[in-house]
Design goal:
The complex is a heterodimer of chains A (about 300) and B (about 475). By secondary structure, chain A is mainly α. Helices cover about 70% and strands about 0% of the residues of chain A. With about 475 residues, chain B is α/β, with parallel strands linked by helices. Chain B has helices at about 1-30, 80-90, 110-120, 135-140, 145-150, 160-165, 190-195, 205-215, 235-245, 265-280, 290-300, 315-320, 355-370, 375-385, 410-420, 430-445, 450-475; strands spanning about 65-70, 95-100, 125-130, 170, 170-175, 175-190, 225, 250, 260, 305-310, 325-330, 340-350, 425. The chains are: A mainly alpha (about 300), B alpha/beta (about 475).
């Protein structure tokens, strides 16, 4: 009988401390990540899954979960004119926000990059309005839009325009709600500005030497370098717009004639006004699915490019 | 590089899926979470009160602690009396410890209450279950069936019938009336006088409302005849016009089902008149969608000559600078039906069905103390002594606010009594049907060419399909 002696390879005495250090690093990373992961699971995934769970019941808040109704809440949604109206409004808001606001901080950041004198002061000035509570800002705009006493109609009178109904006019209300966001881009400007700062100066200088003008430099060097940040901002923008609630709630309450009632308002109304928590859960899940789909498509598109 | 990212992505995804499943498991398992000491479950048809006639809570010797959201705010002019009332209750009931808390902050009281109850943090007794909402709250299991308590309650016959209407559901009692109000027409006598009108003669019908409204409207002064409520509660004031035209927006059938009457002749007439006030007669505010508070501000600042008013809100008028001698209050102008009923509104005390039996007994004891004749009389006396305008409408038959109104203009007292002689509850299933009615009303107020009959037909078709069919099916079960 042949005996085979297996000798266990001895650990490399030089690698042991390195392994220990690496394990410690992994452990430390996990510890640092844990609060964020736990809170994310608790405050993002748990509510989402709870909403999905609720959507299968005629949910009772005091005696949960109530009667199991299967997919009835989803069936109700797809038959409901309120849902389709709110879905249409949400997409309309998405387009209006995109047209009116998404590009503004990019342009502002590019211009800010060219400003050398007082650059820091301007950056601070961009940031200051973000300290104003959003609700106060919306209330202020609501007063500006007042057809009788609002500043906007008062100023337009000097050039023989108006008076306009602004928030009273179903055709104008959505644009009027989005307009304040056109001016409130402070934080995004700084994010884009930081991205521009990361563009290697020598690339820009080389382009200048090669005769590239400002427009060409922006198109061929600055914007491509910002693509990643723009992509991330766009994903945040999508979910931000789909989940936005405050401006519509404060400025119009969803009116006139439901023209500004969005899916997030429908969630609120279904749960706290109509006590149909199951329906609210179903709407929440549909919103999640839409946002996830658009985000996925956006990421795929970016990778393809 | 890409492969590495892909691997990490899959692992991360797997970890998140696992965590999500754990969360789902805890969601399913924890969904029955509730209050502390073990609930006396639910709609509690089986609940038997253990409160004896002398008010003992049924606990032998121990102190029962209950929480009530009725802590007065620092600026509440009746704060000192309320604190005295609390102290007197504590003294008379040493075995009950009441913790008075301010309602948590939130968008509105209804949302805060429902959220707190869902989280198992609701109060043991709550005094702001509004008349139109109590039905939905009972359906959600947010209010205890008080019938066993009510049947043994010596004062149960002292509450006026209209105050109990919304609290009786399927033959059971779920609320004890705390306060109530009746709505009617408010007018500013100063503006009437300035427009050459008799300050003591409000419009008595729709024609007079329009003719007086035109006299009171002065665009140069930004002054207008009468406020409309066109925001997300637009159905609230609009329903009054439907009543004035002789109809209602829904009919509750004897079998518990609901019939929509949006397209009935009175409802269409009312919406046409509502629309005409804006587009034809032009006697309302330009900003027809302004909030309720903006309407109130227009009243306080003398921009609105007439408005909807409530018997409980005179104190607010006075607090915002209006001289009560310059205010008038009367029943609404009658419409095509020759009637102009006021709306009865108010709020009930309800008990938490998830509280322990001992807490429910103690809370019942506290509620009956707060709605007792003695407490109500003390409040009215305090208000009279301190120049605070009282609520002129009492939920109790044996409490007469008019005895405490020496400092109140008597025509206001008479106006409230007249308005209270013909009253109406808000339309049935309002909380569910509001979006449909509001859409029609707002469209009429913002589109000059809109046809009221068409708008109401569309609203009724959608509401029937999306709300009423399902509601009626469940009502028949």
């Amino acid at each position: 009988m042949r005996t085979v002696t297996v000798t266990r390879p001895r650990a490399n005495p030089r690698r042991a401390p390195a392994l220990r250090a690496r394990s410690r690093g992994v452990l430390l990373s996990a510890l640092f990540l844990a609060p964020a992961v736990v809170s994310f699971v608790l405050f993002k995934y748990y509510p989402l899954l709870q909403a999905v769970y609720m959507s299968f019941f005629d949910y009772k808040v005091i005696h949960p979960p109530g009667r199991f109704v299967g997919l009835d809440n989803y069936g109700y949604l797809f038959r409901s004119t309120e849902f389709w109206n709110a879905l249409g409004n949400t997409f309309a808001f998405f387009l209006i926000y995109f047209v009116l606001t998404f590009w503004v901080p990019i342009v502002q950041a590019i211009l800010l990059n060219e400003v050398k004198f007082g650059n820091k002061t301007i950056r601070v000035l961009y940031l200051v309005p973000t300290a104003v509570p959003a609700v106060a800002g919306f209330l202020l705009w609501k007063w500006l839009y007042n057809p009788d006493y609002g500043l906007l109609n008062y100023l337009l009178e000097f050039v023989n325009l108006g008076p306009y109904g602004w928030l009273n006019d179903p055709a104008m209300a959505k644009w009027a709600i989005v307009l304040p966001a056109f001016f409130g881009t402070g934080m995004s400007v700084l994010i884009y500005y930081s991205a521009i700062q990361g563009v290697p100066a020598e690339n820009v200088e080389a382009a200048k030497i090669d005769g590239a003008g400002p427009w060409r430099r922006m198109r061929s060097i600055i914007l491509p370098s910002m693509k990643f940040v723009i992509g991330i901002q766009f994903i945040a923008f999508i979910s931000g717009v789909f989940l936005t609630f405050d401006p519509m709630y404060i400025m119009t309450g969803g009116g006139p004639a439901n023209s500004t009632r969005t899916l997030s308002m429908l969630v609120f109304d279904s749960s706290f006004k109509e006590f149909r928590f199951g329906v609210a859960g179903a709407i929440s899940f549909v919103m999640f699915a839409i946002i996830a789909l658009i985000t996925y498509l956006q990421i795929r598109l970016s990778r393809t490019e | 590089m890409t492969a590495t990212y892909g691997t990490i992505g899959k692992r991360t995804l797997a970890a998140f899926v696992a965590a999500s499943l754990l969360a789902l498991a805890s969601a399913c398992g924890g969904s029955g979470g509730s209050n502390d000491a073990g609930p006396s479950e639910g709609s509690a048809s089986s609940v038997q009160p253990s409160a004896s006639a002398d008010g003992s809570t049924g606990e032998s010797g121990g102190t029962v602690e209950i929480t009530v959201w009725d802590q007065p705010t620092p600026e509440d002019p009746t704060k000192s009396l309320k604190e005295q009332l609390f102290a007197d209750f504590d003294k008379a009931n040493p075995n009950i410890k009441v913790t008075h808390e301010a309602m948590p902050q939130g968008t509105n009281d209804r949302e805060v209450f429902v959220t707190a109850m869902a989280g198992g943090n609701g109060p043991d007794a709550y005094h702001m279950a509004h008349f139109p909402i109590i039905g939905d709250w009972v359906g959600q299991g947010l209010a205890l069936d008080l019938t066993p308590y009510w049947e043994g309650y010596a004062d149960s016959g002292q509450f006026i019938d209209s105050s109990m209407a919304a609290a009786r559901i399927d033959g059971k009692v779920y609320g004890v009336p705390n306060d109530m109000y009746v709505t009617g027409l408010f007018w500013n006598k100063k503006l009437f006088k300035a427009a050459g009108l008799d300050p003591n003669k409000p419009p008595s019908n729709w024609d007079e409302l329009v003719s007086m409204g035109k006299q009171l409207t002065d665009s140069a002064k930004k002054q207008y005849g009468i406020t409309l409520l066109g925001m997300e509660w637009a159905d609230w004031w609009f329903e009054y016009y439907v009543w004035q035209a002789g109809g209602d927006l829904t009919e509750l059938q004897t079998d518990g089902t609901v019939k929509l009457t949006f397209t009935s002749e009175p409802a269409v007439t009312a919406l046409q008149f509502y629309k005409d006030l804006k587009w034809k007669h032009k006697i309302v505010q330009n900003n027809v969608l302004q909030s309720y508070q903006d309407n109130m501000n227009d009243i306080y600042q003398g921009r609105a000559a007439m408005s909807n008013g409530a018997s409980g809100s005179f104190g607010d008028f006075a607090a915002n600078g209006l001289d009560l001698n310059d205010i008038g209050f009367a029943p609404y102008p009658v419409g095509t039906s020759g009637k102009g009923p006021g709306q009865i509104g108010g709020a009930y005390w309800i008990l938490n069905p998830k509280s322990s039996k001992a807490k429910q007994d103690a809370a019942w004891k506290y509620v009956t103390y707060m709605v007792s004749k003695e407490t109500k009389d003390r409040m009215l006396q305090f208000q009279s002594d301190n120049g605070i305008f009282p609520n002129l409408l009492s939920v109790r038959k044996d409490v007469d606010p008019s005895q405490f109104t020496q400092n109140v203009p008597q025509d206001l007292v008479e106006g409230v009594n007249k308005a209270a002689s013909d009253t109406h509850l808000e339309y049935y299933l309002k909380e569910r049907l509001t979006p449909y009615v509001v859409k029609a009303v707002q469209k009429a107020l913002t589109d000059q060419n809109a046809d009221p009959a068409t708008l109401l037909q569309a609203a009724q078709d959608a509401a029937q399909k999306e709300v009423v069919d399902a509601y009626n099916a469940s009502a028949k079960k």
